């Protein structure tokens, strides 16, 4: 699918503040960036980072006063296959080395605390895709999507108890349950078509059958309309803005629309 | 039922240590102490405290070195009625003033965190006794009795996630769920007949239909064989030994046996 | 000192909600209520509770829709003595029985976690008043008064790490340090003269030398201008409004002014 | 320095259990492995992993029953320079991309919670090496080395409050303080000469002046006698054994001795 994505962020920094931003679509194997533009209204030149393996990009700079950060791209996100029940679960021995860290608990996804619960709830389901789909059903049945009950420091433990949260919280709990059953899982930030209201989306991926599968535990946006930004152990790794000191977000406008593909354009 | 109860505790205190002990059967309206004996192998005279309303007793002293604390009593614990589904739940306005604190969250029973879960799980069950019995069924179905997975600082939050614990943990989670549904609940320490291995038992009570009802969420000991010691908001209030500094428990032997009642004695 | 105090609270309840309110000045031995008035704009008759020992008062009712809760009183708060360094610390054996619970850790004041720190920091200071005054100095030197960094669920542990908070947080940490050194301490809600901006104030008391001493760890209001409302183990016990479900506070206006005493009145 | 290191671990696995072990000396640029041997008493062939950039090694296998895991190596750990006060602190813009994750909070090192404390305590000290050395002094002055007060789940928050811990806890708190002041820091597992009793050691590194500097916050072992095993965000990443299910460690014997270097050997 060809998608137009854009982010217009305005921040206020009361003193010169170092930041790392992850808002650019990843140059990952599963999507093609057809065109893009990044501009900051003020500040020094950007340091641009690209992770070789994943194609994920971040930029670093130091900002002061009121600053606009803007990004616009046209991305072909290809074919995003949907996880089916038959996707096979790997033994640890079969996993690529770089996947192993995603088996471990992390700050917001303390999967070691959930091993007994996950066993109780999901061991009767066939391993692999079927088990992950059962976890998504469980999340859907037991957690409410509610704004304002969680913060940037909310862990999967809290969400499990409180039974409510937003996309970040659903993903953290989904990752936690997967890891608790030995399934590698990681957090992913994305631009998402049809998300209402439009915003950066936090989803997650599991590694099964030799590849990562993108999942939206909130079921608020279709997988085939997602443009990948960054991935990591949990939300801390994929923040769209990491700043040295607190700063104030004055406005944030995200848009994602379907771009007419060439055939359609020609026909018109 | 007439019961012989005894506790023989041996502690080692590396320096003079102030302690408060709650090991004596309560002089509560629901039981009668037929005879009793309390002796400490060394140390100054005891300060004896009795709470007028509840008849609960504690003693204070300061101990040093190796000390034996011993208690023995014969108690008639009367008739302990079993909670039935029809016990009526009160509005706050109907509750005795002294019951109100048991509606509030406490350290090990943070019921305010569980309101959404409790509503989801138990609102479809009729209020009052039926709802509390449903909570006990839930605990029995979802939490394993396992030694060694919890400590004196384990909260109901942890037990809810970990799905395992001992009597203290079961009671904390039971209290938490009850309070989350507006049912006053409090922790109770007890001598319990038929508990294996014999130990102080941690159970809880809910206030319904004008009285407190004793419950054992572990289902390890019959309610009719319990002798009440102390009650409070959670385990911190009913510790059998509260000490100023850490001390070492060298041995602890609890026994509870049924005493022949007079009729039987006479017959023999 | 003679003080006029008033609270005008407006809440919105989306459904009929049971509440317990603690906004009335206590009928405690240390203050005299010269006149008072309590009125609620709608709702059923109030259940009025008074604790015999402390004179603390709460009322219960069930409210719906937009409701104003208003209280106005003239209180002579007598002489509030200031804690001096020589106030003597008691052995546990000397304490009145009803003071003992204030030695224990509670949810927001987990003093058992702070024993090593308190020993390190304060054992070199003489026990009793001097030690408590050293704790207040420590709080003043190490914690910033900052709005917005804490919530109703913030514990003394968080405040100790974050080094910032509001009156509730300062009091919780003060209580925690005192209990960690075996000094009974409890939370107190109050009307406070000269507090800017005017609000309910959260302070605390320690038990030394045979009596409770009122302390304001924020140093924002003078002790002699305080009117006592309620006391308890920590903030949960002294909330000015405990409600069954979440409700919305639309406005809250507190005023405390010095009332002209009779002599002055006559002179005018 | 040339060092003989060895680890003999015996575990009992009640069912077939997947494990990842990190006990081999790293093939890192700062040390040379002169000879080594790794043998497991039973189990399938090992999957061996080496991280290209760091030379860190792990092996994966699945074990059952009682199993011995043994490693023995002779390592020349070269020259380990000691951090001096003049080591320069980098702006984020100057850091190598792969160092950036070590600026972020992690589960056991939640540095975002400590920003105000770190600023209060260390902002008056010159940035860079001097500031890190001040942090080590602070740790030494304020935290006691005590066995048994912490577990594998203890965070830097707990250690900061409790003021006691073991090498893992000291390192977590050191890492946390460094990150809170914008200094990249990571956990390192090591074989350490002269550590008493001999054990795997948990130390940490900060990135200053264009390189990582190894530090032992417990001051129990000299930096120049350390052989690097693995590094990561915190202890979870450098566990010497990560296992799918709980397993029992029956024995663990670590030895580290100085090997005679060739010159000495020849001279003898």
UniProtKB/TrEMBL annotation, chains A, B, C, D:
Residues 159-219 form the Transglutaminase-like domain. InterPro entries: Bact_transglu_N_2, Papain-like_cys_pep_sf, Transglutaminase-like. Pfam families: Bact_transglu_N_2, Transglut_core. It comes from the Bacteria. This is Transglutaminase family protein. It comes from Bosea caraganae. The lineage of its organism: Bacteria, Pseudomonadati, Pseudomonadota, Alphaproteobacteria, Hyphomicrobiales.
């Amino acid at each position: 699918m060809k998608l137009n994505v854009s982010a217009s962020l305005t921040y206020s920094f009361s003193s010169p503040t170092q930041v790392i931003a992850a808002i650019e679509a990843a140059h990952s194997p599963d999507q093609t960036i057809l065109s893009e533009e990044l501009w900051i209204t003020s500040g020094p030149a950007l340091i641009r980072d690209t992770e070789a393996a994943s194609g994920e990009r971040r930029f670093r700079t130091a900002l002061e006063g009121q600053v606009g950060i803007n990004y616009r791209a046209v991305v072909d996100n290809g074919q995003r296959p949907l996880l089916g029940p038959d996707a096979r679960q790997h033994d640890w021995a079969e996993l690529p080395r770089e996947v192993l860290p995603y088996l471990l608990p992390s700050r917001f996804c303390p999967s070691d605390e959930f091993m007994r619960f996950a066993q109780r709830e999901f061991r009767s389901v066939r391993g692999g895709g079927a088990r992950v789909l059962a976890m998504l059903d469980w999340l859907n049945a037991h957690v409410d999507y509610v704004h304002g009950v969680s913060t940037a420091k909310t862990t999967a433990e809290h969400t499990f108890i409180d039974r409510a949260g937003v996309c970040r919280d659903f993903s953290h709990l989904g990752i936690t349950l997967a890891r608790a059953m030995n399934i590698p899982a990681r957090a992913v930030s994305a631009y998402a078509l049809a998300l209402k209201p439009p915003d950066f989306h936090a989803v997650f991926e599991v590694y099964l059958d030799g590849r990562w599968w993108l999942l939206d535990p909130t079921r608020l946006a279709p997988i085939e309309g997602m443009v990948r930004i960054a991935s990591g152990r949990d939300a801390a790794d994929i923040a769209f803005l990491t700043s040295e000191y607190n700063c104030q977000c004055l406005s944030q406008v995200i848009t994602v629309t379907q771009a007419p593909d060439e055939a359609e354009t020609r026909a018109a």
